[in-house]
Design brief:
Blueprint (H helix, E strand, L loop, with lengths): L32 H11 L16 E9 L4 H11 L6 E9 L2 H8 L3 E4 L9 H13 L4 E5 L1 H14 L3 E5 L7 H11 L4 E4 L2 H10 L7 E3 L16 H6 L7 E5 L8 H13 L5 E5 L5 H10 L6 E5 L4 H4 L5 E4 L8 H8 L4 E3 L5 H4 L7 E2 L5 H12 L2 H18 L2 H20 L1
Parallel strand pairs: 1-2, 1-4, 2-3, 4-5, 5-6, 6-7, 8-9, 8-11, 9-10, 11-12, 12-13
Length: about 425
């Protein structure tokens, strides 16, 4: 079989056989991280975090491609991969199609950030060409994509440039017919597909069995909040709240799948039962107007705060007395891990891989998605039981520190980059 010609004259074409990865992957569904780990070990599967990959002598340039650089979970993963990388072995380039607040922070840290505008909605063939040309010019070794727009355009660009590519699936978008229709075509452009949690991986393997040989598990990870340097009173000062006021909070894009309307309705029920509280929903998105209308119609103006997107959420969540994740669909949200790491008691819905980290009664409380009354009951229950709050917060922090640190996540991705770069250079 003759390798096809590629557009990179300075790098030899990839061995076609390197595109075949016969090693099987067994994905087991489990709600307990210990059970999931034990199941993988019994099946002979090792996650990337535990694999041993030879270190290359040459430096590896990784292109991190993300749809935009606004505040969000996928963008925070990119930030960690860039800023916490092993600088003795890896160089980084960040590509985005839309600018955002994270770009300035990356540039101020000396990182290279390129904004390549998407000129047409959904699919822009010129964007893939521009990405391919830039990958070749910058002598990129590995392409890593985040979010579907980047998967679509940068995955195609990497394929055309003959580069190894990895995509991270941050959540399963079963509600988006365009993404589901194109998913199989997009997956074929990648050498590795990373799931951020065990149940996310399980869903991918079930919906698209052909991705199993490429599928790897690397759990999301976050930094400890005390490393950010943001004062712990920043959020309360911004909202003009005293330390004595009980603050319930959540962080996430204002989108339908995040369930913020359910949270506002649950908060109304809690207030009706005589609990003086404040609620803050940190984030921005297309549901802002609808959430504002829900707040006004429920008579909660002055009690519910929507400050928009804010930087350094890992420090902000430490100011919450209770963190609530009312999502209808998730992967493994960083905001939840940040709250756990900060020792804040958590209530969440068991969607995506949330059930792997929130074990009901041990590291938090779980409630059914889309049920404001159950959510209100869980909030009231924890507010009335400070001992349970302290117990759950301690269990959550212990789990987050042991298994969901950012440095472990970055090291696992770097082993994956080395493996892919090694294969492409053989």
């Amino acid at each position: 079989m003759t390798p096809r010609r590629i557009a990179r004259p300075l790098r030899k074409a990839r061995n076609p056989e390197s595109l075949c990865f016969p090693r099987s992957l067994v994905i087991l569904s489990a709600t307990d991280p210990q059970d999931f780990r034990a199941g993988r070990e019994r099946s002979g599967f090792r996650s990337v975090a535990s694999s041993q990959v030879p270190t290359l002598a040459d430096r590896i340039t990784v292109a991190q491609c993300v749809f935009d650089l606004c505040h969000g979970g996928a963008q925070q993963v990119v930030r960690s991969l860039v800023l916490l990388r092993d600088r003795s072995r890896f160089d980084s380039l960040v590509y985005a199609f839309h600018d955002g607040a994270l770009a300035a922070g990356l540039r101020s840290s000396g990182e290279r950030v390129s904004i390549l505008p998407q000129r047409t909605p959904f699919l822009d063939p010129s964007l893939s060409r521009r990405l391919r040309d830039s990958f070749c010019k910058e002598k990129v070794d590995v392409v890593h994509t985040h979010l579907f727009g980047a998967d679509l355009h940068a995955g195609l660009a990497a394929k055309r440039a003959g580069l190894p590519a990895v995509m991270t699936v941050h959540s399963n978008r079963h509600d988006n017919w365009r993404q589901r229709f194109l998913a199989g075509w997009v997956f074929r452009r990648f050498d590795r597909i990373v799931a951020v949690g065990g149940l996310v991986a399980d869903g991918l393997a079930s919906s698209w069995p052909s991705v199993r040989p490429k599928l790897r598990l690397i759990r999301n990870g976050v930094e400890e909040p005390n490393r950010t340097g943001v004062p712990s009173s920043m959020l309360r000062t911004l909202l003009n709240l005293s330390r004595e006021e009980v603050l319930i909070g959540t962080v996430g894009r204002l989108a339908p799948e995040k369930g913020h309307v359910d949270l506002v309705r649950a908060f109304r029920i809690v207030l009706d039962r005589g609990s003086p509280l404040q609620l803050v929903i940190v984030g921005e998105g297309p549901m802002r107007r609808q959430i504002e209308d829900e707040v006004a119609s429920a008579g909660l103006t002055g009690r519910v705060h929507l400050p928009g997107s804010l930087p350094q959420t890992s420090a902000l969540v430490s100011e919450f007395d209770l963190f609530v994740l009312p999502s209808l669909r998730e992967g493994l949200p960083l905001s939840l891990l940040e709250a756990m790491m900060a020792g804040v008691p958590c209530i969440a819905t068991p969607v995506g891989s949330v059930g792997e980290v929130i074990r009901d009664g041990a590291t938090g409380r779980l409630v059914p998605p889309g049920d404001p009354r159950d959510l209100a009951g869980a909030i009231l229950g924890l507010l009335r039981n400070p001992e349970e709050r302290a117990w759950l917060a301690a269990g959550a922090r212990d789990l987050a520190l042991r298994e969901y640190g950012a440095s472990e996540m970055v090291a696992a991705y770097e082993r994956l980059y080395e493996d892919l770069a090694k294969r492409s250079r053989e």
